[in-house]
Amino acid sequence: MKKLALALSVFMMVIMSAVFVMAAEKKQVAQLESLEGEVMSIDISGGQIVFLTTDNQKEVLKADPRIIEDIAIGEQITIEKAGDVIKSIKKSEVTPPPIE
Hints:
This protein is of the alpha+beta class.
């Protein structure tokens, strides 16, 4: 009986350790990447934006519709993304040309 109790205890410890390791792996935070560029198209209801970076790379990204509802096609923006999901958008400041 003692051998069975010991075996079950060891088995439970192994299972609990595996669960803790898997939980720790899921908690790793994705790195945010910052990009600048121009908005090419927006699908607010679908939560999608097509974005052309300053390096001429086309990015098709997902976003919460509330984040992209105030963005217009052609606007210069800076985004922070994790994978293909936009976490934040900031409109770029456009300085007018000097008046001569």
